[in-house]
Amino acid sequence: MRRRAGKLPKVPVAPSHRRWAVLTVCALLLLGLSHPLHAPRAVAPDASPGGLRIATWNMCGVRQWNCESTGTRTEKIRALKRLADTEATDVVMLQEVCAGDLSAARNELGENWHSAFLPYAVQDAEGRRAAVRCAETRRGTAGLGLLAVTPLTEVSAVPTPQPAVGLHRGILCATAADLAVRVCNAHLSLPNSDRAHGDRELRDDQLKALVGAADERTVFGGDLNSAPPSSADGDSWIWPYAAFRTYRECDQRSPASREGRATHSTGHKVDYLFTALPRLGCSVRGTGASDHLALIMRVGNPA
User: Fold this and answer.
1) CATH, domain 52-299, list 3.90.78.10, 3.30.420.240, 3.60.10.10, 2.70.70.10
2) Where are the domains of the chain?
3) 20 to 30 Å CA-CA from 228: which of 13, 66, 136, 275?
4) pLDDT (0 to 100) of residue 11
5) For the segment 9-33, what is each residue's pLDDT rounded down to a tens digit?
């Protein structure tokens, strides 16, 4: 039976320049930011204009994680601002984002933008936890982020099993108050990432927790470090039944489809957005500042 992390308390959104200390279970640092996006590919023939635009993007901001050649700090902040403002996105889910970059982008976008941040942590064999620092000065710690053009409320981390020894990622959820939608941003563990239990699979329970945190007004996804389920994929069993059925993925072209366009430079799809809201469009956008493409979904406004 897999060990599960204890339940984390809900944490209120903090001001943009304030940091929270790393907690013994899972530290939360909350900032403030967000706004609109771009021309989506139609999913349904009756797609209508309007709706909300929600994106997910792994920024590859931790240079020591094979991100040295994916752009400078300035280029990454500029790309994030384009996603949020020029591309007219209402909410951007971010992985491998540096807290300083998120704060800088939010401040440059203006006072209407809000953000929340959940730092990564590395746990050693004695249970000691340490934050992951972005290599350059002024960039701070690395983690998951949310950038939104509306205040973010009910911000919380979803408890998930994490490596006994190794990198702890996580799931960060928040309600986009003025949009009447909840978003959950996940970054799942890589296979064999538990250095104490090399063959331990964590993604199945992490996906179960992610889907379990959703309802009919939720958009959820992120960098799931997983291929879409298929008969040729031996890891297909990790996906919960509700994924692709109760909820539909941004690039899912039919109820039976489990495919989608590549979102990583290797040619694989590892980034996802799911919802039970009407899907009005889906697009994959290059940013020039990451090894991941941005995935953008347009959904119908919640009633």
Assistant:
1) 3.60.10.10
2) 52-299
3) 66
4) 36
5) 333 343 333 333 333 333 343 443 3
